[in-house]
Amino acid sequence: MPTATDADTADLLTRGDLTPLARIADSSNGALLCEVSGGTASLLAIYKPVSAERPLWDYPDGTLAGRERAAYLVSAAGGFGVVPPTVLRDGPHGLGSVQVWVGDPAEEPELVVAVTRAQEVPDGWRIVLRGETELGERVVVSHADEPAVRTTAVLDALLNNSDRKGGHLVRVEDGVRGFDHGVSLGVEPKLRTVLWGWAGEEVPEADLARVEDALGRLRAGPVADELAGLLTAAEIRALRGRGDRLVRSRTHPSPQPGWPSIPWPAM
Questions:
Q1: What is the dihedral of CA 51, 57, 60, 65, to 10 degrees?
Q2: Which of 190, 219, 231 is nearest to 71 (CA)?
Q3: Range of the domain at 192
Q4: Is the preceding omega at residue 147 within 30 degrees of 0, hence cis?
Q5: Is residue 59 part of a domain?
Q6: What are residue 111's DSSP bridge partners?
């Protein structure tokens, strides 16, 4: 469940004054960098208003912000610690998700996924894709082989994340944080990710325990109650079903035919 610090952050995100500072230029859904302030406290956050969501063929209109909040609830319920505190609230452009910004916007984040030439793959990283640049140069996509990244892969499988780009994952002092979960938690299997390095391998016990913890809180209690207002009954059943299958199979999923397994662009 959320720590006291997470709870305090979520309270500030919910109650604080939301002041837009800049638009995120590469966002497809009108995301804004904002300052959230209240009393003597302030922080930076990303505000994604429902009014700026781009219609998608495979997700109901106006639901992406709610899915951002739902992804945080699932991550927190299982103790995954991947999704930063995220709330759903009114802002300058109406209802939207507000998620705490991780890191310094003026500094380049440390990513756990990279696109490099084959001979430049960091030691111990797992290669998941080989391809070519527009100029015909051979490159590979690889990711770090470490517990925090693996935990993220398990959470993505639980969330049915269909857009896990490499640029959505950054390393922080206590692990890895992941962003952009608006296109997740659908009913149909459509896992699309750059974290395929453990496909078919056994899920670590610690991550299975996280899935089981999340499942327990998805069945009854405040998390289950709030999710019922964010997702459809079918989406909640599918979420529980994915968790049950992970626990039974004890295996990381593998790419399946009929749906692209890698997002585009990969980063």
A1: -50
A2: 231
A3: 4-106+146-249
A4: no
A5: yes
A6: 170
Quote the pTM value: 0.93
Handedness of CA 146, 156, 112, 122 (dihedral sign): positive
In whole angstroms, give the CA distance from residue 34 to residue 232: 30
Q: Are strands 126-132 and 169-172 parallel, antiparallel or unpaired?
A: unpaired
139-192 pLDDT per residue, tens? 999 999 999 999 999 999 999 999 999 999 999 987 999 999 999 999 999 999
CA–CA gap between residue 242 and residue 255 (Å, rounded): 15
Q: What is the pLDDT of residues 5-51, one digit of tens each?
A: 788 899 999 999 999 998 876 666 679 999 999 988 899 999 999 99
Tokens representing residue 18 in the block: 């939301």
Q: Residue 37: how many CA atoms within 13 Å on its side-chain side?
A: 7
Q: What whole-number distance in Å separates Cα of residue 196 and Cα of residue 162? A: 13
Q: Are residues 179 and 218 in the same domain?
A: yes
CB 30 within 8 A of CB 48: yes
Number of folded domains that form the chain = 2
E-strand spans in 160-214? 169-172, 175-178
Same domain, 158 and 241: yes
Pair (12, 121) in one structural domain: no
